[in-house]
From TrEMBL:
InterPro entries: Aldolase_TIM (IPR013785), Coproporphyrinogen-III_oxidase (IPR034505), Elp3/MiaA/NifB-like_rSAM (IPR006638), HemN_C (IPR010723), HemW-like (IPR004559), rSAM (IPR007197), rSAM_sf (IPR058240). Pfam families: HemN_C, Radical_SAM. May be a heme chaperone, appears to bind heme. Homologous bacterial proteins do not have oxygen-independent coproporphyrinogen-III oxidase activity. Binds 1 [4Fe-4S] cluster. The cluster is coordinated with 3 cysteines and an exchangeable S-adenosyl-L-methionine. The keyword Chaperone applies. SUPFAM superfamilies: Radical SAM enzymes. It comes from the Eukaryota. GO terms for cellular component: mitochondrion. The keyword Chaperone applies. This is Radical S-adenosyl methionine domain-containing protein 1, mitochondrial. It comes from Halisarca dujardinii. GO terms for biological process: porphyrin-containing compound biosynthetic process. Residues 19-252 form the Radical SAM core domain. Belongs to the anaerobic coproporphyrinogen-III oxidase family. HemW subfamily.
Amino acid sequence: MAAQRNFTTLLLHLPKQLNAMRSYHKSSIYVHWPYCTKLCTYCNFNKYLSAKGDDVEMQKCLVLELETMIRLTQTEEIHSVYFGGGTPSLAGPDTVVAILNSLAQLCNVPADVEISLEANPSEWHKFQDFKLAGINRLSIGLQCLVDRDLLLFNRSHSRECGLKALETGRGLFPGRTSVDVLFGRPSQTLESWREELKEITKACDSHVSLYELTVEQGTPLARSVKNGTVMLPNEDLVADMYLTALQELSRNNIHRYEVSNFAVSGSECVHNMHYWQGGEYIGIGPGAHSRISLPANRSQRLAVVHTPEPKRWMKQVLAYGCGTAKSEHLSSKARIKELIMTMLRTRQGMLYTVLDGLFPGYSSSAHDLFRQSDTISGLVEENLLQLDERGLRATDAGLNVVDSIVCDVFDCQDQAYDS
């Protein structure tokens, strides 16, 4: 409860803060809708089965927490909005309208701002209503086009329904429809994966988010793998599947701009790019995360995590204006580590212009550090990294093994802080 008391103290002094200082400030908004109609067997996200009667109260609390966080951070313009979950398409267009109306009353929302919604394919009949509510980008949780796997994962849609959702989404949001796809699934072969990708790119031709199926502890899938009823492909086959996806997507002009994200030029996700480049974002809803600054010190970044359980979160929001479980100031070292982890996963890499915007003058010392590091030099010689006056970035080969590269750059950064 210490974090809640600290945040409550900030809220009590909010009017004084607003009068004491004014500064133009921009943030992205993430809205977490925690409910699902079914729980997928592989998912360990913060999600709960839909609770009857909670929707109205949830919407009310989302708006209240949004207003609190906007006032607290003195955000004056919105960079992007993203409705995630859970299954935010269950929330209904009225919740989207309530959130966007509140934002419009509190700060500037540019006419062309990206407003994304994650949606289950089974909700395809609502896509038109969501567009009318203000959504202009759709992320469809297809996962795959194999009915056997959809049943195994306890998904609420079929292959036929998935294709209908892609067709509907693409018609309503041309160039702004994304699809989530899992690979490394049970019984999957390289050839079946290639054919599935061809079908997916025909149906959704602008953006693909590609994720390796991960066995998360405590999930039904983990128990099935442990007892031997589900067998997953070996690591070599999974690696080949990723490379096959690179080739197939590139053949359709859908190029990798982040390790797990592929798009035709101009269809990249603005909201996610903002995350990856260290931009500020306000998370609202149960379990949502934020990276914010306060008016008194814009150079200091605050990490905020909200209470995950919906009913407890709503109770806190009604009492305090927000449902904060934890808040802490991030050190410069912690922030730079976050940037290394997110920026190196993108094709742009660690751009010095972006780093200097967050840490004025940092790029000069960073460039010297990278240039003098034997580890970085070795990775450059292996054609896994590129280092020049613009910054540090992974090559195409480096992006394929970027997790190990990030660890090496972490070590390099730690040595600089410890010396």
